[in-house]
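U., I forgot to send this yesterday:
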Amino acid sequence: MSDPALPDRLSVNPNSPYYDAALLERGIGIRFKGVEKTNVEEYCVSEGWVRLSAGKTLDRAGNPMTVKLKGPVEPYLRDAADVG
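Result:
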């Protein structure tokens, strides 16, 4: 399921304390409720939520508008999934 090398929480926003550029460059995939999601802005495995971008809309600061959904989150490295 979840790779032990992956953090409990990760964000794609460089201003977030949960941002990790090296890990994001490797390629992270997210399964939310068993479905592959490609528009995840942030996730937290222990709390069981993802933040998804809501279309192309932006807030006043120019950040994507997001929706927080709760459910089982399964992060994985894309390289490992492509091999197996």
